[in-house]
């Protein structure tokens, strides 16, 4: 048989979808320096995630905005666990690490999604 290669974009999208499912995550953000000026909606989830994918392993960085009132360490650990589980179960890759960068705190998720729709 031949080799199976999973594109970085696929891993990024899986990780982004997993991250926004965690309670307390308001949005994904494009990078550490972009902060709140580059908050991304569900359509661009992979842009809030950076990955390095090898033949059997993946290292992941997620850039998130946390909803006000949620404990940041708890949300970040939830994001780490959710991403690791989703990527490993869907791709078969071993996730060597998930670094979470909290780049902002924001109002409720619904309000952000409304603003992005405008």
The SSE order reads HEEEEHEH
* Count of DSSP-assigned helices: 3
Mean pLDDT: 84
Low-confidence stretches: 31-42
Proportion in helices: 25-40%
Q: So what's the overall shape? A: elongated
CATH architecture: 2-Layer Sandwich
Q: Specify the biggest β-sheet.
A: 5 strands, mixed
Rounded Rg: 14 Å
CATH superfamily: Cation efflux protein, cytoplasmic domain
The strand count comes to 5
Oligomer: single chain
**What is the terminal-to-terminal distance?**
49 Å
**Domains counted in the coordinates: how many?**
1
**The CATH class:** Alpha Beta
Report on this model:
- The chain is α+β, with helices and mostly antiparallel strands.
- The protein has one domain: Alpha-Beta Plaits (2-Layer Sandwich), CATH 3.30.70.
- 36% of the residues lie in helices and 31% in strands.
- It has helices spanning 8-20, 72-91, 109-117, and strands at residues 25-29, 39-40, 49-53, 57-67, 94-106.
- Strands 1, 2, 3, 4 and 5 form a five-stranded mixed β-sheet that branches.
- Helix 1 (8-20) packs across helix 2 (72-91).
- The chain is elongated, with a radius of gyration of 14 Å.
């Amino acid at each position: 048989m031949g080799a199976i290669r999973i594109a970085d974009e696929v891993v990024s999208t899986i990780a982004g979808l997993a991250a926004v499912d965690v309670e307390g995550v308001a949005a994904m953000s494009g990078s550490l320096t972009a902060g709140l000026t580059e908050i991304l909606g569900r359509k661009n989830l992979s842009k809030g995630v950076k990955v390095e994918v090898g033949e059997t392993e993946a290292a992941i960085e997620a850039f998130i905005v946390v909803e006000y009132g949620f404990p940041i360490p708890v949300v970040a650990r939830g994001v780490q666990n959710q991403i690791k589980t989703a990527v490993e179960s869907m791709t078969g890759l071993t996730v060597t690490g998930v670094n979470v960068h909290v780049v902002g705190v924001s109002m409720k998720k619904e309000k952000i999604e409304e603003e992005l729709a405008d």
